[in-house]
Write a structure and sequence with these properties.
Blueprint: E1 8-14, H1 18-29, E2 36-42, H2 49-55, E3 62-66, H3 74-83, E4 88-91, E5 97-98, H4 102-107, E6 116-125, E7 128-133, H5 143-150, E8 160-162, H6 182-192, E9 197-208, H7 219-235, H8 239-259, H9 263-276, H10 279-298
Helix pairs in contact: 1-2, 5-6, 5-8, 7-8, 8-9, 8-10, 9-10
């Protein structure tokens, strides 16, 4: 099959984001490569999302699925996966959007050697792009432990994954206790299956940073990280690797606590991450400790 006949399936989970959904779909209308389908998977919206989807029926190959509210993106994404017909699957949150050449740029890669593509995103906040969400190139020989030891490198709205990777029961875990980090868990599962990752070091989309993002800096996010990491700690055989995963978890907890102003508790977790973490985790921990000092000096 020629790469220029590849079909993409773009799966968009949404909930009460009609206005943002419209901007997202406009970005798909503007794609320079046109062989794709759009699967809008609505988690029980009661706004105008259905009507917005209908507006694009003449210009996009769009399907709209509405289901009772589940409370997170995992189930809507899985509904999209069950109906997707493309050779490549893209996950795009409804408040994010693509650059017009996103799909065309991906097609220029040597796709026979790649299973999972991800890239940087521009961060859009308060009406303007003010920074970039920069990812990193995962270690080719062990992307699984790279992510476990050194944190998630893959923004969900940057992904493009070969559909064959989802054969069998490979899906987002529909567990309430990991809502907001179920994407990271899926990346780890795919990495464990030795899929071939490729980092495209360019921003091909926009990530909207708002107050209603599921991922947040509070006790709920701490509990999500604990549930996520504990599963992989328990299945790890080598103590040295368990220690590195625990250090990454301690960094995540300490970072959240410092940012919410709980300096003493935050420092206790960051000190643990300094002792047993990888060099990138040690450097991150030092940076957050310094951030905490600056917060303290401003009190």
């Amino acid at each position: 099959m020629s790469v220029f006949s590849y079909k993409f399936s773009i799966i968009i989970p949404t909930y009460n984001r009609a206005e943002e959904l419209k901007e997202c779909l406009i970005s798909l209308e503007n794609q320079t490569y046109k062989n794709f389908e759009v699967l809008i998977c609505d988690d029980g919206s009661n706004d105008d999302s259905r009507e917005i989807a209908k507006e694009f029926e003449d210009t996009l190959n769009v399907q709209y699925f509405w289901n009772e509210n589940w409370g997170g993106p995992a189930r809507p994404r899985n509904i999209g996966l069950d109906s997707a017909k493309g050779e490549w699957i893209c996950f795009l949150d409804s408040d994010d959007w693509y650059t017009k050449d996103r799909l065309e740029t991906i097609l220029k890669l040597d796709l026979d050697k790649i299973d999972f593509i991800y890239h940087d995103l521009n961060i859009f906040k308060k009406g303007a792009v003010n920074s970039k969400m920069t990812s990193r190139d995962l270690k080719r020989n062990d992307p699984y432990h790279d992510m476990l030891f050194n944190l998630n490198a893959i923004p969900t709205s940057s992904t493009c994954i070969r559909s064959k990777c989802f054969k069998g029961n490979v899906r987002f875990k529909e567990q309430k206790e990991i809502i907001g980090v179920e994407d990271f868990q899926l990346w780890l599962i795919l990495a464990e299956k030795r899929v071939r990752f490729h980092y495209l070091q360019v921003a091909l989309g926009f990530y909207r940073l708002g107050d209603d993002n599921i991922t947040c800096h509070d006790e709920r996010q701490i509990n999500r990280f604990k549930s996520l990491y504990q599963y992989f700690i328990d299945k790890e055989k080598r103590k040295v690797d368990k220690d590195k995963i625990e250090a990454a978890l301690n960094y995540q907890i300490g970072n959240i606590l410092i940012r919410k102003g709980d300096l003493s508790q935050g420092y206790s977790f960051l000190i643990k991450s300094l002792f047993k973490g990888t060099i990138p985790i040690k450097l991150r921990s030092i940076n957050i400790i310094l951030l905490g000092f600056r917060k303290y000096l401003k009190l």
